[in-house]
Amino acid sequence: MTDLRTIKVLVVDDSTLMRNMVGDIIKATPGFKLVGSAKNGLEAIEQVRQLSPDVVTMDIEMPKMDGLQALARLMTESPVATVMLSAHAKEGAESTLLALELGAVDFVTKPSGSISLDIDKVRVELVEKIRIAAEVDLAKMKPGTGHHPAPAMPEGRAPSGVMKTLAIGSSTGGTRALSEILPKLPREINAALLLVQHMPVGFTKSLAERLDNRSKIRIKEAQEGDMLERGLALLAPAGYHMELSPSGDRIKLNQNPPKFGVRPSVDVMMESVALYSPAETVGVILTGMGHDGANGVASLKKKGGHIIAEDRSTCVVYGMPKAAVETGAVDEVLPLEQIPGAIVRSCR
């Protein structure tokens, strides 16, 4: 177990000040050891080879070779668990999402841009994500490996009858999981989709747009009053809980306190679906830390819902699916590549 050994960390940032500040956080954390630092991607690749760190913290914008180029090289040549340090909100969203696709475990947003004198504000988050990264099976992080692309789901006639409600929740590793699942769903799927992915403010709109560009179904960041529609996936905006209206056909957003430290919460969304959806429901829990969604799938199951959880073999972090399985409410436990087919069957 990682907690019985020292986690060796390499800090990569073009700012000397940022290298020192992040390095100080590492050195002050019990069980962590700062083994080195690098000021650009080329140095990072060399340092990884020489020092064999357990985790790299990687800035994105750097001279000579940026963090994305370095990450792509590392995941091919010398795979290492990587936590990206991203510029705040919109400026860094596209690059950060690409980093996750390239194999980064997770990311932390710098509080005030590329040189953040207040980096200490995210100390707890950074330390926690480094700990999680040190536990990850790197074979699941390499781009293009781990999941064999399933054939596209067959298109069919437009469904008739009652539209189902499909609720999906994910956290760490979830952006990659969603990008494996949603593009394989048919345009005519007989369901309205509700998605909760734990992310900081400023990233969910870009994620929705990125997924929409690759999918046959429509995907957008949810807004207050959005109508549920067949073949439309509504992604909860970061910083807001997403619920159904009592009529069961519209979205309600609120900023009630976080649940289990997160907002949006999978539990809040799924419990609302269980309470208000007039249709049959399907619940899906994907990779993620913690147990958000366990109460939600239990609520859906009590109302007759069909529940699918991602198998440990493909989870980046087997936390949320494990907690869901332990409720006894899960009907199918499947590796990621089998989940699109299971969703389609459940929504017929």
Question: What would you say the CATH architecture of the largest domain is?
Answer: 3-Layer(aba) Sandwich
Low-confidence stretches: 145-152
- The counted number of beta strands is 14
Strand order of the largest sheet: 8-9-7-6-12-13-14
| Total domain units | 2
Q: CATH superfamily of the largest domain, please?
A: Methylesterase CheB, C-terminal domain
Q: How do the SSEs run, as a string of H and E?
A: EHEHEHEHEHEHEHEEEEHEHEHEH
Top CATH class of the largest domain:
Alpha Beta
Structural class label: alpha/beta
Features:
14 strands; 11 helices; elongated; alpha/beta; 33% helix; 7-stranded parallel sheet; Rossmann fold; 5-stranded parallel sheet; 348 residues
Note down, in words, how this protein is organized.
By secondary structure, the chain is of the alpha/beta class. The protein folds into two domains: 2-140, Rossmann fold (3-Layer(aba) Sandwich), CATH 3.40.50.2300; 164-346, Rossmann fold. Helix content is 33%, strand content 20%. It contains eleven helices and 14 strands. It has helices at 16-27, 41-51, 67-77, 90-102, 123-135, 174-181, 204-214, 266-276, 294-302, 320-326, 339-346, and strands spanning 7-12, 32-38, 55-59, 81-86, 106-109, 164-170, 191-197, 218-221, 232-235, 241-244, 251-254, 281-285, 306-310, 332-334. The strands form three sheets. It has a seven-stranded parallel sheet, sandwiched between helices. The chain is elongated, with a radius of gyration of 20 Å. It starts with 6 loop residues before the first strand and ends with a helix. Mean pLDDT is 91; it is low at 145-152.
